[in-house]
Specification:
By secondary structure, the protein is mostly beta strands. It is about 0% helix and about 55% strand.
C-alpha cells in the first residue's frame, strides 16, 4: 500500500485515507474496526490528498487523473475533471468554512476552487512554483506551500493579493515545504522535506519558528520529514522517511530564543540603490547566526549584519540595500538560528 492523504472525521469516528496501489479511497471505523474500500472509476488515478467537509463529505485529489473527487455522506462517489489541459497533478485539498473546495495544481503553478458545480482556476505562473499543501484561514485567505522553492504563500481570492514568505532553512539549497495546516489559533504549520524541519508561522506577530529534527543520517545529513499533520489541539506530528520514525514538537516548551526588531513599525519604503538600517535584539543564551531571505523570485537585495553571529542577549544592526529590484512589495525573513531552532520575523519592503 502507498498512502499519502489521511483525514479524520471525528463526528463519525472514522479515518479516511488515499491508497495508490489499489487506486482507492478507504475508510476505517475506529469503533468497530471495519475497513471500507471505494474503488475509483478512473484507472491509475493515484488518489493523493484528502479532506472532510462540515457535512461529512469526503473530498480528494487524483494526482494522475487530473480530477478531484467526492464521496458523499451517503456513500456515492463522484469524480470531477479539472478544466485545465495537460497533466496538472492535483495534490493538496481543503475545504473552507463557507464550503469552498480548494486544491493545488503544482505542474501548472495554479490553485483552484470548486463550489456549486463551478470550477475557478487561479494561474499564478511567474509568481509561484509547484504549490502542494493548502489550507484556508477563518478570513477565507488561502495558504499554500511552494514545493519548488523554500516559500509559503498567502492568497486573497477576492483581491488576488499574494504574500510570499521564505523559510530560513536551506540545508540542501531549497527546503522543499510540502503539507500545510492551520491550527485552532490560526497559525500555519508546514513541513520542510530537505529543510529537515517542522515550521510554524504566526500571522498575528509575523513570526516564523522552525524546529529542526534532531535525528539525521550520514547521506545528506537529514532524516527527510515526509508527511505531517496537526491535531485538533494544535499538536504537530510528522514522519521521517529515512529513519522510520514518527515525531512531534513540544509546543508548550519555550524555544529559548527570541528576535525583536526595535525600530521597525511597518513597511520600509526604499528606492533603487537605497538602504535602511534595522536594530535587532536577540534573546536567549546560545550563540546565534543571523541571516535574511527574500520571499520573491525578482527581489535583488543585500543584507549586512554587524555582527552576523551574536551571543544571546546581544544586539546587531542589519543594513538592507536594494539592487535592481522591480517596484513592488517584498517580504523578507530575518532569522536568528541555533542548531535546534530558528526564530524569524517577517518584514515588508516597498520598492518605488
Amino acid at each position: 500500500m502507498v498512502t499519502w492523504g489521511v483525514a479524520i472525521d471525528n463526528s463519525a469516528s472514522t479515518v479516511w485515507f488515499t491508497e495508490q496501489i489499489s487506486n482507492s479511497v478507504w475508510s476505517f471505523n475506529t469503533k468497530d474496526h471495519e475497513f471500507m474500500k471505494y474503488k475509483l472509476k478512473t484507472s491509475g488515478a493515484f488518489p493523493f490528498g484528502i479532506t472532510v467537509d462540515s457535512n461529512q463529505n469526503i473530498w480528494f485529489t487524483e494526482l494522475e487523473g487530473n480530477k478531484i473527487g467526492e464521496i458523499a455522506a451517503n456513500g456515492s462517489l463522484t469524480e470531477l475533471s479539472i478544466p485545465v489541459g495537460g497533466e496538472t497533478a492535483p495534490s493538496g485539498i481543503t475545504v473552507s468554512n463557507s464550503g469552498v473546495v480548494w486544491f493545488t495544481l503544482p505542474t501548472v503553478n495554479s490553485i483552484g476552487s470548486f463550489k456549486n458545480g463551478e470550477f475557478e482556476i487561479y494561474n499564478l505562473t511567474s509568481d509561484i512554483t509547484e504549490p502542494v499543501g493548502i489550507a484556508v484561514d477563518q478570513g477565507g485567505n488561502v495558504w499554500f506551500t511552494q514545493h519548488g522553492a523554500s516559500f509559503i504563500s498567502e492568497f486573497d481570492p477576492t483581491t488576488h493579493y499574494l504574500r510570499t514568505i521564505s523559510s530560513s532553512n536551506n540545508s540542501l539549497t531549497i527546503s522543499l515545504p510540502y503539507f500545510c495546516y492551520l491550527d485552532s489559533a490560526g497559525n500555519i504549520w508546514f513541513n520542510e522535506h530537505q529543510g529537515n524541519a517542522e515550521a510554524e508561522f504566526t500571522p498575528s506577530s509575523n513570526t516564523l519558528v522552525e524546529y529542526f529534527i534532531p535525528s539525521t543520517i550520514p547521506a545528506g545529513n537529514i532524516s527527510y520529514m515526509l508527511t505531517s499533520a496537526v491535531s485538533h489541539t494544535g499538536q504537530p506530528w510528522y514522519t521521517e522517511l529515512e529513519t522510520g520514525k514518527v515525531g512531534t514538537v513540544n509546543i508548550t516548551k519555550s524555544t529559548g530564543l527570541s528576535l525583536n526588531l526595535t525600530n521597525y513599525s511597518g513597511p520600509l519604503t526604499l528606492v533603487a540603490g537605497g538602504t535602511s538600517n534595522l536594530s535587532l535584539k536577540v534573546g536567549g543564551s546560545s550563540s546565534v547566526s543571523l541571516r535574511a531571505y527574500v520571499g520573491n523570485f525578482t527581489g535583488n537585495f543585500s543584507f549586512t549584519f554587524s555582527p552576523d553571529v551574536v551571543q544571546g542577549g546581544r544586539n546587531s544592526i542589519l543594513q538592507i540595500a536594494v539592487h535592481n529590484s522591480p517596484p513592488g512589495a517584498y517580504f523578507v525573513t530575518i532569522t536568528s538560528k541555533t542548531g535546534s531552532v530558528a526564530v524569524s520575523k517577517i518584514i515588508e519592503i516597498k520598492v518605488i
